Amino acid sequence: MPKALEGIRILDFSRFLAGPTCSLILGYFGAEVIKVEIPKGGDTFRTHPPFTPAGESYFFVSMNRGKKSITLNLATEKGRQIARELVKKADVLLENFSPGVMEKLGLGYEELSKLNPALIYASISGFGHSGPRSHQPGYDIVAQAMGGLMAISGFPDGPPIKSGASIGDSLGGIHAALSILVALQHRNRTGEGQAIDISLQDSIWSLAAIEHSMVYFLTGKAPGRLGNAYLYSVPFGAFPTKDGDVILAVNTADEWNRLAGAMGRKDLMNHPKYALQRERIKYREEVIALVSAWTKSLTTAEAVKTLSDARVVSSPVPAFEEVANDPQLLSREMIVEVEQPVSGKLKVPGAACKLSRTPGDPTRPAPALGQHNEEIYISLLGLKQQELKKLRDEGII
Question: Is-above-0.85 flag for pTM?
Answer without folding.
Answer: yes
